[in-house]
Design goal:
heterodimer; A: 305 residues; Alpha-Beta Plaits; 2 domains; four-stranded antiparallel beta sheet; 69% helix; 8% strand; B: 232 residues; alpha/beta; Rossmann fold; six-stranded mixed beta sheet; 31% helix
Chain lengths: 305, 232
């Protein structure tokens, strides 16, 4: 029984699309434009956020300890006790804490400047460096400012330094751009829903007598609704074909060309094809849902009257 | 069996009274004419019967179903138990006779095998077995109306509602349709027929209910446009 019904519904949905070919075509085009933007944005956003994540992994908060602070509170390599470190670890969002003594810091500094290592021996007693904790945050936590402030309020902290300001500005900028783009996409999705709902309205109008008879002979509302909803879903999915194909082909080409990274070779590794395939799948789902919503809008209104 | 109990139907928030406190009873297998001037409430009367409209107050009961109480989502299932025929036939022009009748079974999910059997049987009943493959425009008005009647009958309804079924037909075709309807009534189907055809009402005598300005002004047994045998 379900099979006869489904067959009949699909047949009448396709008939509906062809009877209003140009309306269906323009709705599908609107969906295609929307989805193309959605796709471009998703691909861009996926890559940027993977890039950001890579960079964030390397950002840490340097917590400089005041020299007057009780040394017994700090990490002790012999006893493995680390009261101050434990306090840092208890802060929400902190992933790991690593201690580096002022001696180690001084050695690192000397090495970095490329000076003779004997310098260290000479100035060991006048070491200008401070004891330092290196704090890294859990993935997803990017409010460095807030956590830094929290750390700075702790007893014994002389100063806190968190990476270069540039990256953080970039993250903020990216978030703002995301918001604007999401706004545009929502507007476009609404437009697409509206256009599809108009197309379906026309199909319903064309089949007015048929629907009237269906209702007279006792077709359930669900039965009457189904072909129109299918029609909307098909139009929406047709709209996903072109942007989906474009993204797959173009992204494939880009991946091929920059397969071993791009610009800052290792940190900007492009997202793999697998994730892009998921995006394309998502496009079809969005197309279908947009089409379904569009037709539900007009069918419900019609069936009520 | 049709029962109206104090039925009032108002349109436009009470400004138009289409039916006023109407009560009546139509038994199983009865053949009833509904007559009266245009705008008197005849259309409202039958729309209430096939639950296109809902009574503002009072109760409409058809074959045990209380139409004032059933939910909108159940209306389709109620409609499967009644048949409706219109003046303009309401056939689908791009479907053949067979397909038009089959349509009524398709939409309620019958299998192609069952559909074929039932449609051929009903075509025989209305005498159009040789027209199964014809399109509506290839048929005369009377034949088209017979297709519509076949479609209304396909689910073996207990009640058949006919809204001026002979309104567009010449006298000869009208006669055929009337004979067909009488035959259907004899098989136990209640028939409620709205008509303007005075001659028909006087020739094929049946109970006649006159509706005027929303009231039943006349209810005569055994027909006749002007007799006053029984008044409600």
């Amino acid at each position: 029984m379900i099979i006869y019904r489904l067959g009949r519904h699909i047949k009448s949905a396709i008939t509906g699309i062809f009877r209003n070919f140009w309306m269906s075509f323009s709705s599908a085009t609107a969906v295609a434009v929307t989805l193309l933007l959605v796709a471009l944005f998703s691909v861009l956003s996926l890559n940027v956020s993977s890039f950001m994540n890579n960079i964030e992994k390397n950002i840490s908060i340097r917590v400089m300890i005041d020299n007057s602070y009780d040394i017994n509170q700090l990490y002790n390599a012999k006893t493995k006790k680390d009261p101050f470190g434990d306090r840092l670890r208890s802060i929400e969002g902190v992933a790991s804490v690593e201690f580096s003594s002022k001696d180690e810091e001084f050695k690192k500094y000397v090495k970095l400047t490329g000076e003779d290592t004997s310098l260290y021996e000479r100035f060991k007693d006048e070491n200008p460096m401070l004891n330092v904790y290196k704090v890294t945050l859990k993935q997803g936590y990017n409010d460095y400012e807030k956590i830094s402030k929290e750390i700075k309020a702790l007893d014994g902290v002389k100063d806190v330094d968190y990476g270069t300001g540039g990256i953080h500005k970039l993250i903020t900028l990216f978030n703002q751009i995301t918001r604007v783009l999401v706004f545009f996409m929502v507007a476009l999705v609404l437009l697409a829903i509206f256009l599809i709902s108009n197309t379906i309205k026309l199909t319903i109008y064309n089949r007015k007598t048929e629907i009237q008879i269906m209702r007279l002979v006792g077709a359930s509302n669900g039965y009457i609704r189904t072909p129109f909803i299918l029609e909307g879903i098909i139009i929406g999915m047709l709209g996903a074909i072109i942007p989906g194909a474009l993204i797959l082909v173009i992204y494939g080409k880009i991946l091929e060309k920059y397969s071993d990274g791009f610009m800052i070779s290792s940190s900007l590794q492009l997202v793999s094809m697998h994730e892009i395939q998921l995006v394309v799948l998502g496009l079809f789902v969005i197309g279908g849902v947009v089409g379904m919503l569009g037709s539900i809008l007009s069918v419900t209104r019609y069936l009520k009257s | 069996m049709i029962k109206f109990t104090n039925v009032t139907k108002m349109y436009r928030k009470g400004r138009v009274h289409a039916l006023n406190n109407v009560s009546l009873f139509i038994g199983k297998g009865e053949f009833v004419y509904i007559i009266g001037p245009t705008g008197a409430g005849k259309s409202t009367f039958i729309k209430l019967l096939y639950r296109e409209e809902k009574a503002t107050s009072g109760e409409v009961e058809v074959n045990g179903t209380n139409l004032s109480k059933i939910r909108n989502s159940r209306v389709p299932y109620y409609r499967r138990k009644i048949g409706v025929v219109f003046q303009d036939y309401k056939l689908l022009p791009k479907k053949t006779v067979f397909e038009n009748i089959a349509f009524a079974l398709e939409v309620i999910g019958k299998s192609p095998r069952v559909i074929r059997k039932q449609v051929l049987t009903i075509l025989q009943l209305v005498g159009l077995e040789d027209k199964a493959k014809a399109f509506p425009h290839e048929l005369s008005g009377g034949q088209q109306q017979r297709v519509a009647i076949a479609r209304a009958l396909i689910n073996n309804p207990g009640v058949m509602i006919a809204d001026e079924p002979t309104g567009n037909l010449d006298p000869e075709s009208s006669k055929e349709i009337m004979k067909l309807l009488e035959e259907i009534s004899k098989r136990g189907t209640t028939i409620v027929m709205v008509t303007h055809d005075r001659q028909m009402v006087n020739t094929y005598k049946h109970r006649t209910i006159t509706i005027e300005s929303g009231f039943i002004s006349n209810d005569t047994m055994g027909g006749g446009y002007n007799d006053n045998l029984q008044t409600w």
